[in-house]
Amino acid sequence: MAFFSLVLLLFLSPHPGQAQLPESVSPPTPLPSASSAPEKKPPSRHAYVGDEACRSCHQEKVKTYLGTAHHLASYWPGEHPISGNFIAGSNIFRTANPYLHFEMSATPEGYFQTAVEELAPSKTISRTERIAVIAGAARKGQSYLFWKGDQLFQLPVTYWTERDSWGNSPGYPDGSPRFDRAIVPRCLECHGSYFEWLPPPVNRYNKTSLVLGIWCEKCHGPGREHVTRNRSKSPPRPGGESEAIVNPALLSRDRQMDVCALCHSGAATPIQPALSFLPGGVLDDYIINLHYASADTPVDVHASQVQLLRRSRCFQSSTTLTCMTCHDVHMPQRDAAAFSPHCLTCHQAKDCGRYPKLGDQIARNCIDCHMPLQETQAIFSNSNGKKFKPLVRNHRIAIYPDAQAP
Q: pTM of the prediction?
């Protein structure tokens, strides 16, 4: 659930998605009004303590969580390995413009992207920017951000794991030496844990305020009061007293879904300041998204996991199914086939239409047939005159006649 499965909102483009929809969904809920509620204020940076404070009492969970795509949704260069190939011969990206190419370089001073334009046989001009932030997930791809003063932008070249090659970043035209795609707060809200926004312009931030990656407190809420209470030498608190922290597993079904939907609900229009939503809150009070879409509104597979799951008959016929039914966010991503036991708690392998042909082996991989990988229409790369659309898992559980397990 990261870079392409975790919401890469910095990659969103205005192109509508194409997705199979169910015959019916629940009636849409009226849209909330941005003017009907007072403005919320994000918690101060002081309210957050960071993962190391959590580790003192939750060592095993923190240890495994640090290897997840959520935690690695963004990080500083040098903090973790970078996916792109910076070795000479593999560090060049040639565009559809024969007079423009990009060079990726790794030096003791850092990682860089350079646009090189050939104006004449012996004359070139170039622009070089340092990679300041790495965003994405190694198993899907990585994009890179750079600072221009205190403004944050996306670099024009992305590394695509699926193709094992460099290509234009989503939103950038092929063959143009532009470095102008602004990173707005909604991008950082889903790829980081904290930042101080200083508009105008819309992509201006306090550079020292960025907390990259998804911290424990993104899903559990600010933890300073919780840590203070548990480190206190005062007598034990009465049973049932608040722990000053949120355990999403104890929330109602809708509030559990809201925690995930903050970043896994596709394109959204904020109606409250970034970072103001906290676990346990009602997400509809903070953003407007496709949860309200009518049954005939297409939903793209990219970053719309919650909408697509809600359109599944499995979800609609259950009172307990949530994202956490199948996903343990404290553990690194598993192979798709490993999710099949969750399906088999309700379904029998012999009831599948392909059972007569495949037999019991069909129970080893329900996911690739009933939640297939599909091309996203929302993010893509136009490179060398060709359009590359990454594959993303469709979270609408359904029957897809053309789907085939590998």
A: 0.86
